[in-house]
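$ run holo --ligand "cytidine-5'-monophosphate" --emit tokens
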Amino acid sequence: MGRDVIIACDFPGREPTLDFLSGFKNEKPFVKIGMELFYSEGPDIVRRIKDMGHRIFLDLKLCDIPNTVKGGMRSLAGLGADMLNVHASGGSDMMKAAVDGLTGPDGKRPILIAVTVLTSISEDRLKDELLVGRGLGETVARYAELARSSGLDGVVCSPFEAAGVHNRCGSGFLTVTPGIRFADGDRGDQARVATPAAAKAEGADYIVVGRAVTAAADPVAAYERCVAEFREEG
Ligand code: C5P
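-- output --
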């Protein structure tokens, strides 16, 4: 699996999303559909964007009892998404149930990854609110190990945690990293940001880029810049 850039299509509905994607004439970017778009438009938006030739990361972050997550994944499996996710904090039985629900009768399934610790959770919040005393790095690494031993393909983590996850779980275990900005860009509400080149240097397999592309004056040029910086050798 090669390095790739995933565009977070955080739009409120179908029209602005399709309008945005219609700007891409020569390439079909990998697209992330999250809660905002999925909850407003339903499963049809996944089928529609898939029919347009895009690969899709369906970022719904499932977390519930194993049986419910299994059923949820079974329902989502038919939509044709290429990548889906759960929260690692749901535990190993839940993650195994997600694998089960997503796997078709032919034994095949899309990529399944786990969110480790949300990048909006600070080390202080982890300790004071969630009562997790082991620290952020150790918690992310442990959750990644749990995801791997449960049969998942990778994790969502910060670019700065990608190298640690690969050390623990092997280079073939995928790291999908949001929080990406250009060196000359606005960091917005993200606390820990990395450039595409820095994410590459940390070993990230996929970067998730939202506003640096979607809010750019020329989104196609911004996407192409992102791809060039992330894939550039050396
Ligand atoms: O606009 P921006 O590049 O900050 O968007 C990042 C995308 O990645 C958003 O869709 C956000 O929900 C998602 N994300 C994140 N941090 C995580 C998990 C997902 O920023 N830990």
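-- notes --
Residues 91 and 146 are 8 Å apart (CA to CA).
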